Amino acid sequence: MSDVNMWEIENSLYSDDIKIICGVDEAGRGPLAGPVCAAAVILPQQLEIPGLTDSKKLTDKKRRELFPLIKAQAVAYGIGFASETEIDEINILQATFLAMERALAQLQVRPDLALIDGNREKDFGLPVKTVVKGDSLSANIAAASILAKVSRDDLMEALAGEYPQYGFEIHKGYGTKAHYAALRAHGPCPAHRMTFLKKFYGEK
């Protein structure tokens, strides 16, 4: 386990004006299929959840152990999606922001500040601070990364039931060799992001 103090960023920001901080992160910006998912999480100050870190550093089993713990112990959380159709219409960055807006809108408690993973800012109607690699540095962002990742994985596994020929349950829509082979054999399905496949079909 890392020696990083996952509360260091939040502790440096808490003040008379900033008492409630939420973390926001997304999952699924890169895949060829499926929606992008974002989560917003407000944890109680200094809450220790053993093993909490960037979802990408955790096994699926560990993420699924932490998922209900985060939801049960959070002050508030929200999970939002933007569909593959919306991604094609407005581009992946704007769709990611849309998913984040939807997640933030579900919070039952209004945060004083939102910590956003990454370096791209948007006006969400409240103060925001971007944190590069925030999912490895901030407890709230790490919690959001896990909720977003597990929620999206579950949705991709459901899509695998509708479109079994693509192997969504295995690669979750990412551009693996097996996924490209399935696209060559079967063509795209309604779950695919057509803007992400332009180059692939242009090269055929």
**Multimeric status of the protein:** single chain
Strand content: 5-15%
Query: Would you tell me the overall average pLDDT?
Result: 95
Q: Structural class, from secondary structure content?
A: alpha/beta
Radius of gyration: 17 Å
Instruction: Output the helix-strand order.
Output: HEEHEHHEEHHHH
Describe the sheet with the most strands.
5 strands, mixed
What does this structure look like?
α2 crosses α5 and α3 crosses α4. The protein has helices at 8-13, 60-73, 84-90, 92-105, 139-162, 168-171, 177-186, 198-202; strands at residues 21-27, 36-42, 76-82, 113-117, 128-131. A hairpin with an 8-residue loop joins β1 and β2 (36-42). It starts with 7 loop residues before the first helix and ends with a helix. It is globular and about 60 Å long. 42% of the residues are buried. It is α/β, with parallel strands linked by helices and 204 residues long.
Question: Can you describe this structure in just a few lines?
Answer:
This protein is 41% helix and 15% strand.
List keywords for this structure.
single chain, 204 residues, alpha/beta, five-stranded mixed β-sheet, 8 helices, globular
